[in-house]
Amino acid sequence: MWLQDYDPLHFWPLSTLAAALPLCTFFFVLLRLKKRVWKAALCGLLAGVVLAHAVFGMPLHLIGVSALLGMLIGWLRIAWILVASIYLYNITLATGQFDLMKESIARFTRDKRVQVIVVTLCVGPFLEGTDSAGAPIAIVGVLLVGLGFQPLQAAKICLLTNTLPLAWGGIGSPLMALAAAGGLSEPELSVMLGRTLPVVTAVLPLWLLCAMTGWRKTRQVLPAALASGLSYAFMQYWWSSFGHTETVDIMAALFSLLATVVVLKIRRPQPATTDGTNDGRTSEVDSPGKHSTFTLLRSWSPFLLASACIFILGIPGLRRVLTFSFLSQPAPFLNNAVMRVPPAATAHTPEPAVADLNIIVMHGTALFVGATLAGLLLGLPARDALRIFRQTIARLVPALLGVSLMIGFLFVLRYSGMITIMGLALTRTGPFFPFFSAFIGWIGVSLTGADVASSSLFSRLQATVASQRGLSPALMAAAQAGGSVIGKMVDPQSILVSATATRQGGKEGEIFKTVFKHSLLLTSLLGLVVLLYAYLLPR
Q1: Is the pTM for the entire model greater than 0.85?
Q2: Which among 76, 219, 362, 441 could disulfide-bond with 480, CB atoms 3.0 to 4.6 Å apart, if both were Cys?
Q3: Residue ranges of the alpha helices (H) in 331-432?
Q4: Is it the case that residue 326 has pLDDT exceeding 80?
């Protein structure tokens, strides 16, 4: 049994700096030296191993098992989604349906600004509402590139819009995990989150379009942008108070899509003209031909079937039936061998470490099944589908290596207590703690890549500090959930998925730099909202 030490150097600023060094190493290699993500992750992992043992006193066998467990989970959870998403895209290309998909969107509008609103701010959040494991980033990314968006711009857009639905994404699973880990009422937490996060949601379409094209061109589609953001925010607010937690973002996405389409029917944006740069005004899709409605729906069948499979496998009752306990095994030597201690926990709490091998209910499997079924239904021979799958894996080898090393690196930081130390530093901010509580969630997800992991790390800490300062634990938990949403924009696995989906392998550092400032500013906006609720508005 090993106890985490949150101040091994007996001076918390110095201990915090030591905890941040592996992360600084990773970003130095990625951003300054401009190396591939797998090389940066390997350097970060080596720095983490040395510091975990030499400074934080973690036994070497626990370090090794935590790194291996992270690599395994990286393969099963993230790499499998990445492979299945690109496989889905390649199936769509091989069957000739992707050109028809682009034509169907161009038939509705060739204005790229409107395409961003409809595809990424309505359809993307619906996918995220049913699956919060990264597949929507990949799907939206490949779709935007196919529509003629510049790859770097497409990666930036799909990461920014990924902040809309994540709090209630995956059929409400992140919120449920946070409520359970923090000992809070799920309905109370949902209501509180529905009072804070919609402020960010409402401004996000305008924020995204301004970042994409500038204010002058955004103003030309202002009615559609306002309809998209305000309708989504309103339904988040209303459904979180009076509806079911599991379907908040699904209903918000559908309502936003309906409201946006109605506004676009009433008032079309000014006619788009191509200025030679194609910076957001018109799509590069050729003039759409005349196709029947059935033909156009058929062209969307790979994505529709994949979305249906994701939704079906997300149904709690079905997941329980298809989940087998013998495939969920504790990690040898590591499971419950690491103890979280106060102030990160109310008492000595063992840290679970379980390898879940239930591949049937994993999100990548749903994508793979949907893509394969669509290919067969569209007349693609099974041998050709197998060939496409093999080619997809071969092309993604560097990205898959990066995923495994990255998650292994982050697991070492998690089990050694380094991530917790960085979160603890933000609790020492006095009366400004409500503002920085959002950044605790941001740190948790940006460094673990998962809401559940962030909840297990910081939910009890948030509740304890809130009680000590006379603040609402539900409000602080909602701040953490909202910060987690925005932190997903810059977590390494999301960056890697977006880079691979948009064929920008090797440019992960450039993508990170384009979205980092947006992530910080949006988290600050959320922090100000929480600060307002904490001190000025009645509870």
Answers
A1: no
A2: 441
A3: 363-377, 382-395, 397-416, 418-426
A4: yes
